[in-house]
Design a protein that fits this description.
It is a single chain. The radius of gyration is 28 Å and the shape is flat. Helix 3 packs across helix 6, helix 7 crosses helix 9 and helix 9 runs parallel beside helix 13. Strand 11 and strand 12 form a beta hairpin. The C terminus is likely disordered. The chain contains 13 helices and 17 strands. The chain has a six-stranded mixed sheet, sandwiched between helices. The protein folds into three domains: about 110 residues, no CATH class; about 210 residues, von Willebrand factor, type A domain (Rossmann fold, 3-Layer(aba) Sandwich), CATH 3.40.50.410; about 60 residues, no CATH class. The longest helix is centred in the middle third of the chain and has 18 residues. About 40% of the residues lie in helices and about 20% in strands. By secondary structure, the protein is an alpha/beta fold.
Length: about 425
């Protein structure tokens, strides 16, 4: 006879907690730029340990009011770390970390060298690192995109429309007679009417090549984009984190392109003392550092990337808050001058902007500062390359970039 085994009910309903909602609350922590780091770690070595994730989840639970009154009372009575680690709250946080890993949002990497503690040989949480997976980055990009478009009242978005007409699958224009090379998106009624006009109504209808009529659709172009992110020290100065919003915009733009513009490409370039291209999978770990701003080197790298792309449109989206303060010399050395707009640095930067224009590469600049000299510099860049200049804030940065990308119209926002 089949038996039924009963177990004691513990009162835990942790499976009902939304892991996606938790991940959304952790977005600022997961995409941190170094704003709260007094030592300004090199962005190439910005690993995070499991203890930091543990504390961030606990703070998220406290802010969201998820913890019960009983748990909060226990937390207030705790006197040391060891008592906390044996509590129900600690088990809840550890359960959420395990779920994040089990559902593929984070990847936990344990150190190969064990450390010795009170309990013998083992691993402390500070020796266990974690990193975001592509699934987590895609989710954060989707949430950011949804929030940015939701604030604008936009519920849908499509591909880059132009004034030209072409043949395709989706019919949105007037019909035309078929020409060799066109997509055979046949207008059946128009084709039959042409045959009837030519020979009259009879059965069977005798179709000829000249009777063929096809639908037209709006020609939709493809675009190659390089997103240039300024990661110099000024992006986290003056009591404001400007780099984390820029990272979120990059993730949102990547999600938009992947889901709505599959023919487009997006590359990310960081510029500081020098410039480098990074994959989107590394974007979450990038932090700012004590670097200068080598805008010219960033533009040179962006041009090399776009030269490999066979697209109708090629553009650079540059997000910065500072003046160019460094250039790379022919011998590889870096000339730096952080005081004012150095004529030598500015002149070489303008020369690179002119090269972009000759290569038919559009530069749209998003400036996060309002200093008079910097505004004049950005206006000159816009004048040379006939691009667009947006003087915005970290809060409205994403709205401007995404709407500009989708509209693709000549427009200036002052």
């Amino acid at each position: 006879m089949k038996s039924i085994k009963y177990s004691r009910h513990t009162g835990e309903d942790w499976d009902s907690l939304s892991i996606e909602e938790l991940l959304n609350k952790l977005s600022d922590f997961l995409l941190q730029s170094g704003f709260n780091n007094p030592y300004f770690d090199d962005f190439r070595n910005s690993d995070r340990d499991l203890q930091a994730l543990h504390d961030a989840i606990l703070n998220a639970l406290l802010r969201s009011g998820t913890l019960s009154d009983e748990m909060l009372d226990q937390l207030e009575r705790m006197e040391d770390r060891e008592e906390f680690e044996n509590s129900e709250i600690s088990r809840l946080v550890q359960y959420l970390i395990d779920r994040l890993a089990r559902e593929g949002y984070i990847r936990i990497q344990k150190s190969k060298k064990p450390v010795t503690g009170k309990g013998g040989r083992g691993l402390s949480q500070s020796q266990v690192r974690f990193e975001l997976t592509d699934k987590a980055l895609d989710f954060l990009g989707y949430k950011t995109l949804k929030n940015l478009l939701g604030s604008l009242g936009k519920s849908s978005f499509g591909r880059h429309d132009t004034r030209d007409m072409a043949t395709g699958v989706e019919a949105s224009g007037a019909s035309k007679l078929y020409e060799f090379g066109d997509t055979l998106n046949l207008n059946v009624s128009g084709t039959i009417l042409n045959a009837i006009r030519r020979e009259g109504l009879k059965v069977p209808i005798d179709l000829e090549y000249a009777d063929l009529e096809i639908h037209q659709c709006e020609y939709q172009s493809s675009c190659a984009t390089v997103l240039m992110l300024d990661c110099s020290h000024s992006m986290i100065l003056y009591g404001e984190d400007r780099f984390t919003p820029a990272k979120k915009v990059a993730l949102a733009l990547a999600h938009l392109i992947r889901t709505q513009y599959p023919g487009d490409t997006l590359h990310v370039v960081l510029f500081h003392d020098s410039a480098e291209e990074i994959p989107l999978s590394r974007l979450a770990r990038v932090q700012v550092g004590p670097f200068y701003t080598n805008t010219r080197e960033g533009l040179r790298l962006a041009q090399r990337i776009l030269a490999r792309e066979n697209k109708d449109m090629r553009q650079i989206i540059m997000i910065t808050d500072g003046k160019p303060s460094a250039v790379t010399e022919p011998d590889g050395s870096i000339y730096r001058n952080a005081f004012g707009l150095d004529p030598y640095v500015v002149g070489l930067t303008f020369k690179e902007v002119s090269q972009c224009r000759r290569s038919n590469i559009l530069i749209n600049t998003f400036m996060l500062a309002r200093d008079y000299d910097l505004v004049a510099f950005v206006r000159k860049v816009t004048e040379i390359c006939r691009g667009k200049a947006y003087f915005t804030t970290p809060r409205s940065l994403g709205q401007y970039i995404l709407m500009d990308y989708m509209r693709n119209k000549v427009q200036k926002v002052h």
